[in-house]
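hey
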């Protein structure tokens, strides 16, 4: 069975990355993926930048305990620097491990401009990630799908090359397409039992405004 580890670092001490559970819930609708992939999710509260190096060492070791072939990060402005450090440490230990950067910080235009070329990432996912991540898992299963046909994906053959960016992925017509990670039991009890935990529910994606301080409009021009 293939193993992947999905890593989130929350924006506060009480929150967690719902996006990772959405990825797993959506992927596990597919019987092939349920049969062939073990998707482990690691959630970490907000990390102070002073602790990035030491926390990255611990997180690297925790990830490698699972011996994954694939590691995915959900990137926001408060954690992307940490994931830069963590991905470097992972590649130092295991150069063969494949790393995916996704989340609101991975804007398509920024990828095309080369802003992420120096990152230790093999793949970058922009826009809504559920379908793109599912297609990527199928690709690793040796299916007929080729990388250049996966919408929303950027990829490269080696870290010293720039990303090749595919066409953008069309947004879901409705979030009802994504099974509830709560109702399906995807969200770990250990996360929900944390003291003061904030369990968010997503009701919309995207925005027709362009506020410079906000991430909601990135690759999502409308609601």
């Amino acid at each position: 069975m293939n193993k992947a580890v999905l890593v989130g670092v929350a924006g506060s001490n009480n929150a967690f990355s719902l996006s990772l559970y959405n990825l797993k819930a959506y992927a596990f609708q597919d019987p092939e993926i349920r049969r062939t992939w073990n998707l482990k999710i690691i959630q970490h509260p907000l990390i102070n930048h002073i602790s990035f190096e030491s926390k990255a060492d611990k997180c690297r070791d925790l990830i490698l305990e699972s011996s994954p072939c694939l590691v995915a990060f959900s990137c926001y402005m408060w954690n992307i620097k940490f994931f830069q450090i963590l991905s470097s440490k992972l590649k130092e230990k295991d150069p063969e491990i494949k790393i995916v950067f996704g989340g609101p910080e991975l804007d398509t235009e920024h990828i095309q401009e080369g802003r992420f070329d120096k990152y230790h990432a093999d793949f970058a996912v922009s826009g809504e990630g559920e379908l793109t991540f599912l297609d990527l898992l199928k690709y690793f299963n040796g299916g007929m799908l080729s990388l250049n046909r996966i919408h929303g994906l950027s990829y490269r053959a080696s870290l010293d090359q720039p990303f090749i960016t595919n066409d953008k992925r069309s947004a879901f017509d409705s979030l009802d397409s994504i099974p509830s990670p709560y109702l399906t039991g995807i969200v770990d009890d250990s996360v929900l039992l944390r003291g003061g935990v904030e369990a968010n529910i997503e009701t919309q994606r995207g925005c027709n405004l362009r506020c410079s301080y906000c991430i909601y409009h990135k690759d999502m021009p409308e609601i």
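The domain at 2-172+179-192 is CATH 3.40.50.280 (Rossmann fold). The chain has one domain: 2-172+179-192.
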